[in-house]
Amino acid sequence: MLGLDILIENWQILLKALGYSLLVSLFSFILGFALASLFTVVRLFSSFKVPKWAVRAYVETFRGTPMMVQLFFIYYASPAIGINLSPFQASVIAFALNSAAYQSEYLRAGLMSVPKTQYEAAESLGLSKWGAVFSVVLPVGLRASLSSLGNEFVALFKYSSIASFVTLPELFYVARYIAAGSFRYLEMYTVLAIIYVVIGFALSKTFRKVERFFYVPGLMD
Amino acid sequence: MATMVQSFFPYIHIILDALWVTIALSIAGFSLGFGIGALLLFLRTFSNRVVARAIDGFIDVIRGIPLLVMLFLIFYGFPALGFQIPNMLAAALGMGILSGAYQSQIFRSLLHSVSSSQYESSLAIGLSRWESFRYVIFPQVLRLSIPALINEYTILLKDTSVAYAIGVTEMFTQSVHVSQVIMSFTYPLLFVSAIYLTICFSLSSLANHLYRKLSYGYSIREHIGG
C-alpha cells in the first residue's frame, strides 16, 4: 500500500517526532496563556494608561509580523546579545510570545462578551473590583473564549512544523529526512499531511469535550 | 553596533526588491483562494445534504494541513506524479488551496445573514441557481465579508515567509540571505518585521474601520433577519 510501509518502517522516529511537535505546542500554549492572561487583565482592568499602550503595541507587533521572522529572530539573532538557546527553547519561546498576542485577543473578546450588568451586579453585592473580576467576570468570560483557545492550540500544532528550520527534530523535520533518504517524497508528505490532519482532528475533538464539560446551560446567550 | 547597521545598508535594496515578490505571491494566493472559496460556497449551498457534508469534510481536511507540508507536497511530491512546478507557482498554489478552504468558511459564516427569501424570490423572477447566486446572494455575502477577507489577506501576506522553505526569493528569504552575508540576523530581520508590520497594521486598521461601517449600514440583517 502506498506510503503505509513508510509509516511501518519509521513509526518509532515519527512517534518521537510527534511527541516533540505536541510538546512544543503544549509548552508554548501554556506559557502563551499565562502571558496572555496578564496582558488581558492589564488591557481590560488596569487603570494606568502606559501599560495598556505597551500591551497593545506588543499585541499588534506580534500579530503583524510572520511567525517565521519571530522564530528566526529568537534563534539566530539572540546569540548576538550573548543568549544561546537550544532549538527547543527557542521554538517554545517564539511560539509562546506569538501565541500570547493571539490568545490575549481571544481572552479579551471572551471577557468583553460578559455583560457589564454582571460586573455592576457583583459590585452592588459588595464584591471588590478584583473580587468581581475573579469570581464573576473570569469564570464566564473564560468559558466564552474556550473555543477560540482550542482553535489556537490546533493552529499552534500545525505551525510547530516551522520549528524544523531551527533544527528541532519534530514531525516535519523527521519527515523531510525520511523523504530525502528514501526518495519517496510524495508518499512521505502525504502520510505527513494525514498525520497532521488526524492529530489536529483529535485535538479539536478533545477541546470540544473540554468545552462541553465547562458548559453551563443558560449562562451565555 | 553602528558598524553592523552600516554593513546592512548596501543590502537594503535586495530586501526591498523582494517585497514585490511577497506582494505578488500573496495576491496570487489570495485570488486563487477567493475563486476556490466562492466555488465551494456555491457548490455547498446548492447541493444536497450528502454532497454538502462531503464538501465540509474536504474543507476540514484541507484546513488541517500545515502550509509548510502543503508546499512540500506540491513542490517535492507532485514531480512524482509527472508534473514539475516552479517554486513560485507551487507556493501560490499551496497558499491558494489553503486560503480557499478558509475563505469558504468566511463566506459560509456570513451566508445566514442573507435571508433565504431573497434566494426564493430570485428563483421566482426566473433567475437560474447560478444567476441568483452570482447576482443576488454572493454580492451581499461579499460585502459583509470584506473585513474578514482583508484579515485573511494579511495572514497570507505573513505566510508568504513560509515559501522560504521551497526557495522562493520573497522578502523573508532575501532577508535571511542578507543576514548570512553580513553575518548578523538582527537588523535584516528587524527591517523586514517593520515592513510586514506596516502593511499588516494598516490593513487591519482598514478592516476594523470597514467592519464598523459595513455592519452599520446593513439593512437586511436588521430588518428582515437571517
TrEMBL record, chain A:
One of its GO terms (biological process) is amino acid transport. The keyword Transmembrane helix applies. The keyword Cell membrane applies. Pfam families: BPD_transp_1. GO terms for cellular component: ATP-binding cassette (ABC) transporter complex. It is found in: Cell membrane. This is Amino acid ABC transporter permease. It comes from Fervidicoccus fontis.
From TrEMBL, chain B:
It holds the Pfam family BPD_transp_1. One of its GO terms (cellular component) is ATP-binding cassette (ABC) transporter complex. GO terms for biological process: amino acid transport. The keyword Ribosomal protein does not apply. PROSITE patterns: ABC_TM1. The chain crosses the membrane at residues 20-43, 64-83, 189-211. One of its GO terms (molecular function) is transmembrane transporter activity. The keyword Transmembrane applies. InterPro entries: AA_ABC_transptr_permease_3TM, ArtM/GltK/GlnP/TcyL/YhdX-like, MetI-like, MetI-like_sf. Residues 19-208 form the ABC transmembrane type-1 domain. It is a multi-pass membrane protein. It is found in: Cell membrane. Keywords: Amino-acid transport, Cell membrane, Membrane, Transmembrane, Transmembrane helix, Transport. Gene3D superfamilies: MetI-like. PANTHER family: L-CYSTINE TRANSPORT SYSTEM PERMEASE PROTEIN TCYL, MEMBRANE COMPONENT OF AMINO ACID ABC TRANSPORTER. Belongs to the binding-protein-dependent transport system permease family. This is Amino acid ABC transporter permease. It comes from Fervidicoccus fontis.
